[in-house]
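FORM 7B - TANDEM STRUCTURE REPORT

SECTION 1: FIRST PROTEIN
SEQUENCE AND TOKENS:
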Amino acid sequence: MEIETSWHDWKKTLGQAVNTAEFVGMSDQTINKIAYRLGNFFANNFDPANREQRLLKELWEAGGEDEKRSLAKMIAKLAERDVKH
């Protein structure tokens, strides 16, 4: 399955989700756990729609568990930063 969306729209949607999670009181640790689970879900179930998503999928597939957790955390931070600016 492929998700049709631009890179910027994807980051905006993810950033809004992170902001909402923080607003309702979720800790950074909980947000990072959810980001990791979503990373696994997307990597296993969706074809990347653009080159940026393709790169993320390849990095995810190449990484070990700790690297995947770090990547998920960085993606959440990137998306959140873009929404705040």
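SECTION 2: SECOND PROTEIN
SEQUENCE AND TOKENS:
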Amino acid sequence: MAQKIAAKLGYGWRLLATGLSFFSFGVGGLLLWVFVFPVLSLLPGNRRQKVGRGQKTVSYSFYVFIGLMHRLGVMTYEIVGLEKLNRPGQLIIANHPTLVDIVFLISRIKQASCIVKAKLWHNPFMRGPILNAGYISNGDPEQMIAECVAWLRSGGSMIIFPEGTRSIPGKPYHFQRGAAAIALQANAIVTPVTLTCTPSTLTKTERWYQIPERRFHLTMHVGDDIPLDEFAGISPKSVGVRRFTQYQQDYFTQQRELYKHDGK
């Protein structure tokens, strides 16, 4: 009986802590937009330098947010291979199991751009970080690819989810070709990052309040760089893009099987 009561109290606390975490995330984004970014914009520097400051600010704020969720007992986490990240001209491709994973990735990468859904540009809680960190809209696919390629060629780093949306638990991966096209056009350093979340939570089909019976454990395994030579030399280029997309899909499918029992 005492064990059941303790479990219910623990669940109730984590539900409250999850709500508090997301409330803090929204308020934090609004405060950054109203108070922090206007001050940063007054500092001297060109567009690239200002975007860099914005990305560092977002990275640090996300680091604080992940720390908050950890301290409140909502989640635990583990990182393997962090030293392989934070390199100029690096394209980080990752699977997308949970809503929190993009926040987790950015919290560990001090300066990185990413692709953002067009509708989020009108979200008052997200607009400030999106604009000031120079994130790229997916509203126009051709323009999106061109901007991503230009950013990587200029020495910037990027985070892309080749699926384009969160994974559906138990369903096969279905990768889009955008990440492959960007990588091959930019001739970028491509580094895969495998993310696992145990137990599954904050998926595409779950609301924030549908929390698991215990705190979730998020793991990040950074793989070795993927050589592009065998895909870059294929003609026509569309075939190389298609084959590289399939390679990514197969890679992450294998990694999911390898790490599916990870967690605490």
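SECTION 3: OBSERVATIONS ON SECOND PROTEIN
DSSP finds eight helices and seven strands in the chain.
Helices lie at 2-42, 47-71, 101-108, 127-132, 141-153, 178-186, 229-232, 237-259.

SECTION 4: SIGNATURE
Preparer initials: ____
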